[in-house]
Amino acid sequence: MYHVAVIGATGAVGQKMLQVLAEHDFPVRQISAYASARSAGKIVQFKGQDVTIQALSENITKDGIGVALFAAGGTISEQYAPLLAAAGTLVVDNSSAFRMQADIPLVVPEVNSQAIGPNDRLIANPNCSTIQSVVALAPLQPFGLKRVNYTTYQAVSGSGQKGIEDLARGSRGEEPVNYPHPIHDNILPHIDVFLPDGYTKEEQKMIDETRKIFRLPELPVSATCVRVPVTNSHSVAINVTFEQETSVEAIRAALAEAPGVVLVDDVSHNQYPMPLDASGTDDVYVGRIRQDQSLANTFHIWCVADNIRKGAASNAVQVARQALESSIHS
Ligand code: 2RA
């Protein structure tokens, strides 16, 4: 049993981490919740008990924490995650601060749990839209990934509470505060900041993280990331080209038995993955599998997952459990 800490415990992901730790029956001996000094003294819930938020400071290394889940943004992670890891705490970081560092594993347990070494103390959680996409692609690796193109339809909860509030504001006819344009009755082909080449940082994350997770640094990957007026659960249209010839049936068969995947692909009964069905679950729902008529050995795959759970909190809890098992069995 472990003393477990959630850093950033007042945010959407931090609160979900507390909920998922309880739901997954994570071996928690003691729970601590940290946030900025502004939130100190506030109360969050763990297994129906009140937990008082503590102000984060460098003294956290003296608190005897065995497992720390970070969901407080890159700046906080950069400052505190290495300190805790150096003190022996197992840290799973949900920010993008360490994801592309060569010596830091970037892990989705269903895909690359072998990337966790027995002595790793700092592990990065990938971006939400990357997580669900690689869970859908991993079972198809035997066909040889040759090229991937993503188009995302990302829920406003990916921007935290302020995204959800902008959607609500728009529905009341009020101006947006978080986004540069209304998200109600609109879509924004803009997630995170624009980079000099015209891609957004969110698109670049999907490209870089996919290559790192599959250990295919040269894999041709591209992405267009779009914010849609959906409260929760991201959808991704994946267009994938394989090295080998395959079929819709073979792809369906591989996905049907894959861990963490639920195949929902029966268009004769209007059955396909949708955000409303994915929300509140930890699975990645996959469907609309069909041959791309414009390119050989190429297929369209539609996948949907709860971005706050599998895309963030649940994946972090699963990574922590996997890392603890790796170090116990080493
Ligand atoms: C988003 N990917 O949906 C982000 C959250 N990490 O905005």
From TrEMBL:
Write out the similarity annotation. Answer: Belongs to the aspartate-semialdehyde dehydrogenase family.
Q: Which UniProt keywords apply?
A: Amino-acid biosynthesis, Diaminopimelate biosynthesis, Lysine biosynthesis, Methionine biosynthesis, NADP, Oxidoreductase, Threonine biosynthesis
Report if keyword Nucleotide-binding is assigned. no
Listed PROSITE patterns: ASD (PS01103)
Q: What is this protein called?
A: Aspartate-semialdehyde dehydrogenase
Query: Which intervals hold domain Semialdehyde dehydrogenase NAD-binding?
Result: 3-119
Example GO BP: threonine biosynthetic process
Q: Which gene encodes it?
A: asd
